[in-house]
């Protein structure tokens, strides 16, 4: 039996790191309510194109905010903090999360001690750039630069590059997701809540497994290597008659199979029998392989390598990724009930019971304050008159 639909998450969120985390939980069926300031809101609402013809619903915002409800609340005002307490009590909030700077926790009345005093078993999540003791601002590319990811990305001898996806943001979201699952398990066993603090910087550096071990333990210099691999060869992009393929060999047995492909027999040399020998001469070896692959089309290379169980892929554009059979079948969708606009979202890492039951459909990303009436009216019992007064005072 899937229990996630019995959980409620209240998320004081903006940008990417926390919205992606709450989106992952929404895919499980958790009732996610995103909380925004009634004036400023989430800046990401204004990023990308305005395809719906209305404010604060731009295309960039849509990618990771489906499946949620949206309300506004001014926590800078005492009355706003009182309403927050009421929300947590009456809605039985299980998870509260924020990516505010730590100095704002108490100021906004969202610190763990305050919320725990309202609901003792609450699971509290704080996502920060450098941990709860630091108020240093942090954006994903800054963390990529400071955390070594840029040093490892790009061609040798050329400028460092950012990774094509925001790994510090989304990696932290995934780490937080795991911590929440542990906290839910602990709560189910003991009835106790949990405070979870995650540093985006520490999440980022935790991915540096091989680089840190080899640098610190053995004094090796680990830096960007372009399309090749520092420890395995051949691994690279190779030219074909009509494009490019990426080929990756992971052991000596695969190398023997590779040299038996039609047109590649000339690569079978004693000095290349072991991976260490191929690594020593990787530049020359890759040049020789390229001369062979240039004589075949991309499809011919894929067919040959697949038959020999050698890992290969064309270098796909995003349009081509969307046509991949695995991806095509797993895309999530959401339709705007107002404009009938349909959007597609990236496939989930795994198909949850909730997504299976919904036919991979999620509710459309919420408009700014869209669910104020539903949450404050239905859940807290506020009249329309009271809501209007709160709006006039800048509380919601």
List the helices and strands and how they pair.
Layout: E1 8-12, H1 17-27, E2 31-36, H2 59-62, E3 68-72, H3 78-91, E4 95-98, H4 105-108, H5 112-118, E5 123-128, H6 140-146, H7 167-190, E6 194-199, H8 200-205, H9 209-218, E7 235-240, E8 243-248, H10 252-259, H11 275-280, H12 282-293, H13 298-307, E9 311-314, H14 318-323, H15 325-328, E10 332-335, E11 342-345, H16 353-357, H17 372-379, H18 384-392
Parallel strand pairs: 1-2, 1-4, 2-3, 4-5, 5-6
Antiparallel strand pairs: 7-8, 8-9, 10-11
Helix pairs in contact: 1-7
Question: Could you explain the architecture of this structure?
Answer:
This protein folds into two domains: 4-206 and 330-392, Crotonobetainyl-coa:carnitine coa-transferase, domain 1 (Rossmann fold); 235-316, formyl-coa transferase, domain 3, CATH 3.30.1540.10. The chain has a six-stranded parallel β-sheet with strand order 3-2-1-4-5-6, sandwiched between helices. The protein has a three-stranded antiparallel β-sheet with strand order 7-8-9. The chain has a two-stranded antiparallel sheet with strand order 10-11. The chain has helices at residues 17-27, 59-62, 78-91, 105-108, 112-118, 140-146, 167-190, 200-205, 209-218, 252-259, 275-280, 282-293, 298-307, 318-323, 325-328, 353-357, 372-379, 384-392; strands at 8-12, 31-36, 68-72, 95-98, 123-128, 194-199, 235-240, 243-248, 311-314, 332-335, 342-345. The mean pLDDT is 97. Strand 7 and strand 8 form a beta hairpin. With 396 residues, the protein is an alpha/beta fold.
């Amino acid at each position: 039996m899937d229990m996630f639909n019995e959980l409620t998450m209240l998320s004081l969120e903006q940008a990417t790191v926390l919205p992606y985390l709450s989106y992952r939980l929404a895919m499980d069926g958790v009732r996610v309510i995103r909380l925004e300031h009634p004036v400023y809101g989430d800046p990401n609402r204004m990023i990308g194109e305005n395809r719906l013809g209305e404010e604060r619903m731009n295309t960039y915002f849509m990618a990771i905010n489906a499946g949620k409800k949206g309300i506004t609340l001014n926590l800078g005002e005492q009355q706003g903090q009182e309403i927050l307490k009421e929300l947590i009590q009456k809605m039985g909030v299980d998870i509260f999360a924020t990516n505010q700077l730590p100095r704002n926790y108490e100021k906004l009345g969202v610190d763990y001690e305050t919320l725990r005093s309202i609901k003792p078993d609450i699971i509290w999540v704080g996502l920060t750039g450098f941990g709860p003791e630091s108020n240093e601002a942090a954006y994903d590319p800054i963390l990529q630069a400071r955390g070594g990811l840029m040093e490892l990305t790009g061609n040798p001898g050329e400028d460092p590059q950012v990774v094509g996806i925001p790994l510090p943001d989304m990696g932290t979201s995934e780490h937080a997701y795991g911590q929440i699952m542990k906290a839910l398990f602990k709560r189910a066993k003991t009835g106790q809540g949990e405070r979870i603090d995650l540093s985006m910087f520490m999440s980022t550096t935790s991915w540096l497994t091989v680089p840190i071990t080899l640098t610190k333990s053995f004094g090796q210099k680990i830096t960007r290597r372009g399309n090749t691999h520092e420890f395995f060869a051949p691994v690279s992009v190779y030219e074909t008659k009509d494009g490019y393929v990426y080929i990756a060999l992971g052991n000596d047995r695969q190398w023997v199979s590779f040299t038996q492909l039609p047109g590649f027999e000339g690569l079978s040399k004693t000095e290349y029998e072991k991976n260490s020998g191929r690594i020593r001469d990787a530049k020359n070896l890759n040049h020789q392989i390229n001369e062979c692959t240039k004589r075949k089309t991309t499809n011919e290379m894929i067919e040959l390598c697949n038959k020999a169980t050698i890992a290969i892929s064309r270098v796909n554009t995003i349009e081509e990724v969307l046509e991949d059979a695995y991806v095509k079948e797993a895309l999530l969708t959401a339709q705007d009930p107002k404009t009938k606009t349909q959007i597609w979202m990236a496939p989930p890492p795994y198909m949850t019971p909730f997504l299976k039951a919904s036919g991979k459909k999620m509710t459309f990303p919420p408009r700014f304050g869209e669910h104020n009436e539903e949450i404050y009216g239905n859940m807290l019992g506020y009249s329309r008159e009271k809501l209007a007064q709160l709006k006039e005072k800048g509380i919601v």
